[in-house]
Write a structure and sequence with these properties.
This protein has eleven helices and eleven strands. By secondary structure, it is α/β, with parallel strands linked by helices.
Length: 354
């Protein structure tokens, strides 16, 4: 397994100023680089405490690139539906150059009605805009005198500058929360998979991981497919302290997402079947069940190591885990403790005896 950090703020001005949150995150980036973690990522969301401090992950990742030499820099994820592909391809190519070829480019469809409304984009178009946007970005990265005549955008012939450092282009990830069809399409296209165990049952996640590996192998790609899973994570020397911190963070995160998905009370979309149920997400207290199902990595170093072995047994040991260690509600010093305990007492001891 590989391990990295994903930053998903769920705080607003009444909780913590944005500049303080970013200062804390960059402090954790420095520590992740020092301790040998694999990557850092940042989300894209708007308006709400649920991710709203990060409307442009590339800006944060550029700051992270300037103070690191080794960490991979991942979007988690950028939304093609909300930006012209020429702009998105150029921003990511520029970041790939600033970082000397360390970008992992994850793309997502988005799912919050208020975000689509603000950009004037019909939700029913989200899948088609996503597919077209990703393909147009890849064309710009790899083709001189690129021309595109799609349903939503038209350009060319143009030659993007700068060209990405990584050839033929930075690794492309697809973020999928629910759809098996999206997993199949990603694998066949040679796009890596990024998903969130919190969004589905254990059996559903195991099915998606199995489907992705099967379809990737069947497509005959010349490189291994990557699977990135995102987990909230709190580690402490004392079990009670870890549980109390993890429960508080999960409760605050639930409040944040509940406010962000409220528009699903009176929204329907053919592109998002069943998403109306998200409006009730705040009415369910699932902390203990999520912890039992290893959807939350919370506990002492020994307990979290046991959870990680269980995850490896369920989904394979060739995964990359992105750890949500700092949503902004817990002191940054506690996030530092989590990173240090994992690096010193968990990750080195995960390999089984032969």
């Amino acid at each position: 397994m590989k391990f990295g950090v994903v930053f998903f703020p769920t705080v607003g001005p009444e909780d913590k100023p944005a500049h303080q949150y970013f200062d804390e995150c960059l402090r954790l980036v420095d520590l992740a680089e020092e301790l040998g973690y694999d990557h850092v990522k940042m989300v894209e969301h708007y308006f709400f405490a649920y991710g709203g401090y990060s409307p442009d992950p590339v800006t944060f990742l550029a700051a992270a690139a300037g103070r690191t030499k080794r960490l991979r820099l991942g979007t988690s994820a950028t939304i093609p539906a909300f930006v012209h592909p020429v702009k998105l391809a150029g921003k990511l190519a520029m970041l790939d150059n600033i970082s000397h070829g360390r970008v992992d480019a994850a793309f997502g469809r988005a799912f919050l009605p208020d975000e689509f409304k603000a950009f004037g984009i019909p939700m029913d178009e989200s899948r088609d805009r996503f597919v077209e946007g990703v393909e147009a970005v890849k064309l710009l990265w790899t083709t001189e005198d690129a021309e595109w005549k799609g349903t939503f955008h038209e350009f060319g012939p143009v030659t993007l500058l700068p060209r990405p450092v990584q050839r033929p282009h930075p690794p492309v990830f697809v973020t999928s929360a629910r759809s098996v069809d999206s997993v199949v399409a990603a694998a066949r296209a040679g796009h890596h998979l990024q998903t969130v165990p919190n969004a589905m049952t254990v059996d559903e996640l195991r099915e998606r991981v199995t489907v992705f590996r099967r379809e990737w192998a069947a497509a005959g790609h010349d490189r291994p497919g990557q699977i990135h899973l995102t987990f909230p994570c709190v580690v402490a020397e004392d079990e009670g302290e870890a549980i109390a911190r993890g429960r508080l963070d999960e409760e605050r995160n639930t409040v944040a997402i509940s406010q962000a998905v409220r528009a699903w009370q009176d929204t329907t979309s053919t592109a998002y079947p069943g998403y109306e149920k998200l409006a009730d997400i705040g009415k369910r207290d699932l902390f203990d069940q999520k912890l039992a199902d290893d959807k939350l990595l919370i506990g002492t170093p020994d307990q979290v190591a046991a959870q990680l072995r269980s995850i490896a047994d369920l989904y394979g040991d060739d995964l990359t885990l992105s750890l949500g260690i700092h949503s902004g509600h817990l002191p940054v010093e506690q996030a530092e403790t989590t990173l240090r305990l994992l690096a010193d007492r968990v990750i080195p001891h995960l390999r089984r005896e032969p």
